[in-house]
Amino acid sequence: MAVTKNLKNRIKNDTFSSVEFEYLDNVGSAIDLTGAAIHIQFRYRCKTGEVVKDISNGSGITITDATSGKFEIDKFTPITFEVDTYYYDIQTTFANGDIKTYVNGTFKVLQDITN
Amino acid sequence: MEEIQVIVIDNQEVVTLYVDTNTSGVTSVNGETGIVVLETLNIPENTNLYYTEARVSNNTDVAANTLKTGITAQQAADITTNNAKVGVTNQEENTINTELEAGMTGEDLVLNVLSLTEAEYDAGTPVATTFYIITDA
Prior knowledge:
Chain A has strands at residues 3-4, 10-11, 19-25, 37-44, 51-57, 60-65, 70-73, 84-93, 99-110.
């Protein structure tokens, strides 16, 4: 069962700042991401909307410390998405083949003013 | 419960999420997620109220001991009729008994019967409801 973490709003044409994640087990020990594949899609307006960004580790996602369970969505510039709400979740395929989606949520892209 | 924590750092905001990885069932309890231990402070009363000594003591039936639990039926009946007349003075008891036995028009109530000498009687102030027996007359 995933939990919802809505990301902070982003302003169109700004840099999408990185978002760091850390997976720990129920006693606070890191979940080993060695050999894991992490996949995230951003979808327009709804969970089944158009995919506006598709990233995975090595291409938009960096596993920063696998044994510590840490990874991040890499920052990217600029945010070219239409002003609206976007949906995402994080699908992790562990080395043993287990596929888990722990987190989902939304974020909004706000209209910028200065071009 | 299978559970993990996910720490998210987004634009300086650090959030720790607790993910119940069960695919069904409860994801939070009383607004709490993760390993939740609830106590009565966490659960507001609705129609079912928590027990307190004060509430029990204030209960009308308890205060009146309506059911008179823990005593025999005879004892309960005695309490109801106050046969022993507990809580009243002897004089009040006499009054009660006299009242119970009363019924004749014009009768006077005698609450006490005393014997004394005439001198003792003369030295005191007679009480209207006391019957005096003068022993040396």
